[in-house]
């Protein structure tokens, strides 16, 4: 089954290349030029992920995000932005954003595609072990003794 | 159309049969619908007739208060609103709303003649101690240069509303404005922190809460303006850079993957064109940002009417194409200013292009519509000229009103505007000692009032 991705982005040039690249990796992609179009598409069809631009004329990205969460609380959302600002990030995380994609001088098309692919890959055994080891490293030794004793 | 006709018949029935007992909510809905269909002149005529035939008991009703608020907001002839306000005050034992309305109208015209008369004959009104009236009274005493009374009012508000946070916040702003903050600082600080959860002692109109909120918002906004600008610039430059990078990254992978030696000439040319287009975009942005940061200015003396005409001539083609009627008044008088002529041209051109865009937008939706741009120049006190710039385009949405001067805020379609025009205008004027304000009472389109000093106030 192919995953379906919706790109909500006012810059059609940007969304054109991103959708071409994602289609090359067998994703099904639809683009919406603004929040309203995006939300109405979300009401009609099922998507597996939304890639959302935060700065758009009319309905802004976080307004769209709030509405989107009313329609579909568990949908994966990746926001697409080129500035980082702690309070804004905090707000976005609270609204259930899964990841950030960079724009501007650090924009990396194929890196972005890899990142999106990784969001759909279930965690494998090797990675799980790595993660667990990392966690144990962080536990103070005395605490560790308590656990094992 | 049918629905509107139906509304008119119903209003006609109310007016002709003098149904003063009509439910204010129903009446409000009827008027609201007509207002949306832009039949303001009709409503005005009906209401005039309705009010002219009214007796004293009408002025005791909620309906009268609604009609007053309507006149205050939408009817240009403010004498009518003043008359209704006075009648309500005379006939009711709850004059607060009408009194506030009267004070507000007088405030807008900076002429408190009617209020003076009222206070002379009814000094008891000066003893009203609810926040809505006290708030408006500070402006009244401000016009009278009576700081002692303003001080009294602030102290009264603090005593009475010591645990009402929104009221205290508004009062804090008032105290700041009149240099009384230090005196009451401890009160604001201590008292606004206790009993946050307690219910307000008085039932305050929602409007006042909004006012408190707005004034707070204003303060935060000015401090975030710079952050907005830098964020906006980063975003605006980031877009074309992203597009260039994505384009190159996409095609370079495509070519290397397919090991395609027969690179299609057309594809390559498309990529080149895309990149050139994006760099042009960056260049334009730099040009647009230049006037904000440029420190050089070339001040000269010129007649601003001539300069306005020149700016209009530059956009003559667009004006003719959209069949826009333009009017600049008065042509026979000279208004000499010392200002940077290039910057002045930018101010007028920016406003003009906005107007043309909004007229064009309205034109696509309305048949038989004639676009119109009117500029009226007059003297304001001795130091300033006022340029009233108005159009009959789509106007500015309620929600956009507070944000139009923010950098990178645009309501236009993607690619059509950067949201810098009004930001630049307000900055150029600020630098030169002037201001620009949106006339919020103007309904048939957008109207800006520009205050420009006769003598430029650049720090040379």
Shape, principal axes of CA atoms of chain A: globular
The biggest beta sheet of chain B, please?
A: 5 strands, mixed
Tell me, rounded to a whole number, the average pLDDT of chain B: 80
Question: How many E-type strands of chain B?
Answer: 7
Can you give the helix content of chain A as a percent range? 40-55%
- Helix coverage percent of chain B: 55-70%
Q: What count of helical segments of chain B does DSSP give?
A: 17
The termini of chain A sit apart by 48 Å
- Annotated CATH homologous superfamily of chain A: Response regulator
Counting DSSP H or I runs of 4 or more residues, the number of helices of chain A is 7
Number of domains of chain B: 3
Strand order of the largest sheet of chain B: 2-4-5-7-6
SS content category of chain A: alpha/beta
The assigned CATH architecture of the largest domain in chain B is: Alpha Horseshoe
Q: Taking all residues together, what is the mean pLDDT of chain A?
A: 81
How many distinct folded domains of chain A?
Answer: 1
What is the CATH C-level name of chain A?
Answer: Alpha Beta
Order of helices and strands of chain B: HHHHHHHHHHHHHEHHEEHEEHEE
Most extensive interface: A-B, 25 and 25 residues
